[in-house]
Amino acid sequence: MCRWLAYSGTPIRLEELLYKPQYSLIDQSLHSRLGVETTNGDGFGVGWYPVDGPPAPALFRGTGPAWNDANLREIAGSISSPLFLAHIRASTGTAVQQTNCHPFRHENWLWVHNGSIREFSTLKRDLTLAVDPRLYPSLAGSTDSEVMFHLALTYGLRDRPVAAVERMAGLVEAVGRAHGVADPLQMTVATTDGDRIWCFRYSSEGHSRSLYFSTETTALQALYPENRQLRALSEETRLVVSEPLGDLEGAWQPVPESSYGVIQKGADEMGRFTPAAP
């Protein structure tokens, strides 16, 4: 499977989360503690929105292991962003190539995924044909994750993100059942339009991959008043991760099974995620 993180808040250099924490994303690429695979070396990617400038995100993706990429380290040490997604990949059977590396991008949207569509090669034709013909030309790779993204776009991700992802999940499960595939969908997903971040944790078998969100910054600052890094963060700062980046007590809360969350200005949201049958 894979590991990912989503950050929104006070602009920080990418290295502050990719490299510096005790269990940073780069550390997880070699020593994942909660993932299906210990090593995630089949490519990486980061997508970020600029502090000042157009809302369109930039992408940097590579096919090698994240721990050994000098360009990623160089970029992470020099780029600051108020909102970014990062991903390290462990292939579930599709090719190791740049177009299969996350995040996936469409206009101002980014998407990362951990999990799989079981027996994707069997379901791929039916699922791909359900993609809006206007979006089909932008399918560049061969992964189930990219097809999921384009199905969500097809079902209205831009206007009703939660409903669109529920319809995507419902279609995957319906097509899976039609082909006799048990428990076809396993996913944790983050997607963003550059303003808000939507995160999802769901699996057909009800035993989803790990996902955590950071405790409110003000609560952490009260718990750890001596921590200078925490004092520098705004109360709007949030982080969602496949697995915690450190052992700071009280810093991480598990995302409930079959749920979604919205990180946004003001009060965040959390709700029940229920696939919608097509």
TrEMBL record:
Keywords: Glutamine amidotransferase, Transferase
Classification via PROSITE patterns: GATASE_TYPE_2
Cross-referenced Pfam families: GATase_4
Origin organism lineage: Bacteria, Bacillati, Actinomycetota, Actinomycetes, Micromonosporales
Top-rank taxon: Bacteria
PANTHER family named among the record's database cross-references: GLUTAMINE AMIDOTRANSFERASE DUG3-RELATED
Annotated source species: Actinoplanes awajinensis subsp. mycoplanecinus
Residues covered by the Glutamine amidotransferase type-2 domain: 2-244
Protein name: Glutamine amidotransferase
MF term (GO), any: transferase activity
Keyword Zinc-finger among UniProt keywords: no
